[in-house]
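Extended Data, panel c. Modelled sequence:
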Amino acid sequence: MAQRKMNTSFALTVVLIMVIVGGLVQTYLPWYSMGIAFGIISFFLAIPSKSAFLIGLASGFVLWALAAVWMDSQFPSTLPSRMAQILPVGGSVVILYLVTGVFGGLTGALWSWAGSKLRGTH
């Protein structure tokens, strides 16, 4: 089966859709609901598995990193700086936000890839 090439503008549109839908579902549902939504989107849009993984990674990273920054700016707390001291990030809150984004990205990537594989797209 021939590998289908993803259009860059389509990929960016899917990232935007995933960020919006992921943000909405995480507002009302548990943290993993973002991944389920990404898998459903990848399934119904028949995104190729490699592209689905990368799009899910980018979407999850953007969503969780921006959510961490936004929550810290809206609800100031000493918790992020204390967590940055405990975790091996050198006391940097920015690196803590990036690590949060990486975990969100991996969650989104795996669920998006799974949705694509469930559809049978390569």
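The chain has one domain: 8-119. This feature is highlighted in the accompanying rendering.
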